[in-house]
């Protein structure tokens, strides 16, 4: 599963005209943002100016998955579809931010909405606020990531402010997904477990494997960005419309790096007051 470079391809002409009106420095230009008032002020305090709301969308048809339903297995066709659809939405959002000359996108929300066009069609939406830094990073260079893309972050305004103040910078949102089929229990096993407290090891192992695959793929994306770590990780389970024995595990977080190679987090000094 590979990242795609953001470009204007796939971004509607109406969106490009809207972005042209938001271009910083243009007479009469104003910014749009879905940040709350508190988040807006904290992002400004961190040294970043919101310049426009950016979004990406992909309506995606999920193909047919063939397999042996009597065993635990990843449904690779579905995994690839869910990953690719999200990536299309993310890269289109990044393309809008690049068109604005943004250094990054904060407060990103990545959602999936079912559509009435069919049971195998869904819309993937990425939306966030593009920002421009007041100054280069303290350690020099650029706020953009190693691929030359505006950074993306789903951290709240408060967490973003804390991250910057602590000497770290976001590189990008990283994600991993795994759609997994959990085999049905055989009738003999069902009958033998009736009335007893007992772990269903087959189910435990299936869910464990699926989570691990999603997490490993997210970590691989972070390593490609040369991140020091991933913060704010969320690991969610979605059933979508694939049936009771099929589930998707989706992990997502923000990859970060220190602003200076020799960076150390400053810890508050404890002061003791002794009376008498």
Structure overview:
The structure is a single chain. The chain is of the alpha+beta class and 276 residues long. It has one domain (13-258): Hypothetical protein apc22750. Chain B (Translation Initiation Factor IF3). Helix content is 30%, strand content 29%. A hairpin with a 6-residue loop joins strand 3 and strand 4. Helix 2 packs parallel to helix 4 (157-165). The longest helix is centred in the N-terminal third of the chain and has 24 residues, at 76-99. Mean pLDDT is 80; it is low at 2-8 and 268-276.
Topology:
Elements: H1 13-22, H2 37-45, E1 48-61, E2 73-74, H3 76-99, E3 104-114, E4 121-133, E5 151-152, H4 157-165, E6 168-181, H5 187-193, H6 201-224, E7 229-238, E8 246-258
Parallel strand pairs: 3-5
Antiparallel strand pairs: 1-4, 2-6, 3-4, 6-8, 7-8
Net shape: globular
CATH uppermost class: Alpha Beta
CATH superfamily: Hypothetical protein apc22750. Chain B
Oligomerization status of the protein chains: single chain
String of helices and strands: HHEEHEEEHEHHEE
Rg is 22 Å
- Lateral strand order in the biggest sheet: 1-4-3-5
Give the biggest beta sheet.
4 strands, mixed
Q: What average pLDDT do the residues reach? A: 80
Brief characterization of the structure:
Belongs to the UPF0145 family. The protein has 276 residues and is an alpha+beta fold. It has helices at residues 13-22, 37-45, 76-99, 157-165, 187-193, 201-224; strands at 48-61, 73-74, 104-114, 121-133, 151-152, 168-181, 229-238, 246-258.
């Amino acid at each position: 599963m590979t990242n795609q470079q953001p470009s204007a391809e796939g971004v509607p002409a109406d969106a490009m005209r809207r972005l042209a009106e938001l271009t910083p420095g243009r007479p009469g230009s104003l910014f749009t943002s879905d940040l709350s008032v508190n988040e807006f002020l904290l992002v400004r305090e961190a040294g970043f100016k919101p310049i426009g709301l950016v979004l990406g969308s992909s309506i995606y048809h999920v193909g047919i998955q063939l397999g042996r339903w009597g065993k635990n297995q990843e449904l690779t066709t579905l995994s690839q579809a869910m990953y690719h659809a999200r990536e299309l939405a993310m890269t289109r959002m990044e393309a809008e931010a690049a068109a604005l000359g943004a250094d990054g996108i904060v407060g990103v929300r990545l959602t999936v909405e079912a559509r009435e066009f069919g049971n195998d069609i869904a819309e993937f939406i990425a939306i966030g606020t593009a920002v421009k830094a007041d100054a280069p990073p303290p350690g020099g260079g650029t706020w953009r990531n190693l691929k030359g893309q505006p950074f993306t972050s789903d951290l709240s305004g408060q967490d973003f402010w804390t991250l910057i103040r602590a000497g770290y910078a976001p590189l990008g949102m990283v994600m991993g997904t795994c759609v997994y089929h959990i085999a049905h229990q055989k009738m003999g096993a069902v009958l033998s477990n009736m009335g007893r407290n007992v772990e269903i090891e087959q189910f435990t192992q299936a869910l464990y494997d699926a989570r691990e695959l999603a997490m490993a793929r997210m970590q691989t994306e972070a390593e490609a960005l040369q991140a020091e770590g991933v913060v704010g990780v969320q690991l969610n389970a979605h059933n979508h419309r694939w049936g009771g024995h099929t589930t998707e595990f989706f992990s997502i977080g923000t990859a970060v790096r220190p602003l200076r190679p020799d960076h150390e987090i400053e810890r508050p000094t404890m002061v003791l007051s002794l009376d008498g």
